Q: What sequence folds into this?
């Protein structure tokens, strides 16, 4: 009965969190064809998705309690917390990896664009040539062909995680266009600044690997505690599954361990700087 309720809980949680999580991952891993106001709506959609997942999980727990009793409810609640924590960490990892890839692409695009201008090509031709090797410039190229303003496109893109460097590119491009100043030195300075930022972020990520590993170790400590309980002659699993005190310890222990892991991961994320 417990295994059946646990399987039902896992399926319900995945169905409730899955669509919102898939949209968030797709927003970061797949570049849209053109910037849109939906970029500003992503945090709000993410909060709505997590709220929907939480409400669905609570409904599942109520149903499990009515059908199976308090013991399967406690196990299902602990499983719900573990699944939610795993999904949160997975999404954070995918978001950071996508943002890191995007920062590298933006820095490379600025370097290629500066090289195109340096060899004597006019800015419009340089942008078209650089876009062939740098897909991140493709949208601006299409906007230029239609008579649009490339700086507006880059400023819109700069709000996407990992694309903040496009705002610096837009400022350098606009200053050179408005004043007639040579564009190659400005673009080269932007490229060097973005490259230096990448190097700094790499060093910071390396320094933060130890705290992140500590967070992962915290997730294993409860299992070590169970093992120690058996070594001293006890039966901790039986205690956790029998009686209100055991159920409270099970759910509370899993919740505290999950909060600790998420807290450490959040601190490391904040220390890494904005996306």
A:
């Amino acid at each position: 009965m417990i295994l059946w309720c646990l399987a039902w809980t896992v399926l319900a949680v995945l169905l409730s969190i899955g669509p919102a999580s898939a949209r968030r991952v797709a927003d970061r891993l797949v570049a849209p064809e053109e910037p849109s106001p939906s970029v500003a709506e992503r945090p709000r959609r993410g909060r709505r998705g997590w709220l929907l997942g939480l409400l669905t999980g609570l409904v599942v727990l109520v149903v499990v309690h009515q059908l199976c009793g308090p013991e399967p409810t406690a196990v299902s609640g602990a499983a719900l917390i573990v699944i939610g924590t795993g999904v949160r960490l997975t999404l954070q990892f995918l978001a950071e990896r996508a943002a890191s890839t995007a920062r590298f692409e933006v820095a490379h695009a600025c370097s290629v664009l500066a090289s195109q201008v340096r060899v004597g090509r006019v800015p419009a031709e340089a942008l078209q040539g650089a876009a062939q090797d740098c897909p991140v410039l493709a949208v601006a190229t299409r906007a230029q062909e239609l008579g649009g303003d490339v700086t507006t496109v880059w400023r819109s893109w700069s709000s996407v995680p990992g694309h903040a460097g496009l705002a610096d590119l837009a400022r350098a491009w606009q200053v050179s266009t408005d004043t007639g100043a040579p564009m190659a030195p400005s673009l080269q300075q932007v490229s060097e600044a973005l490259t230096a930022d990448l190097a700094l972020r790499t060093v910071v990520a390396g320094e933060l690997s130890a705290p992140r590993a500590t967070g992962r170790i915290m997730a294993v400590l409860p299992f070590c505690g169970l093992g120690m309980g058996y070594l001293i002659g006890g039966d901790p699993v039986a205690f956790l599954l029998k009686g209100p005190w055991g159920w409270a310890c099970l759910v509370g222990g899993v919740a505290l361990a999950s909060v600790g892991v998420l807290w450490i991961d959040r601190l490391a994320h904040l220390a890494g700087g904005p996306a």
About this structure: Residues 11 and 145 are 48 Å apart (CA to CA).
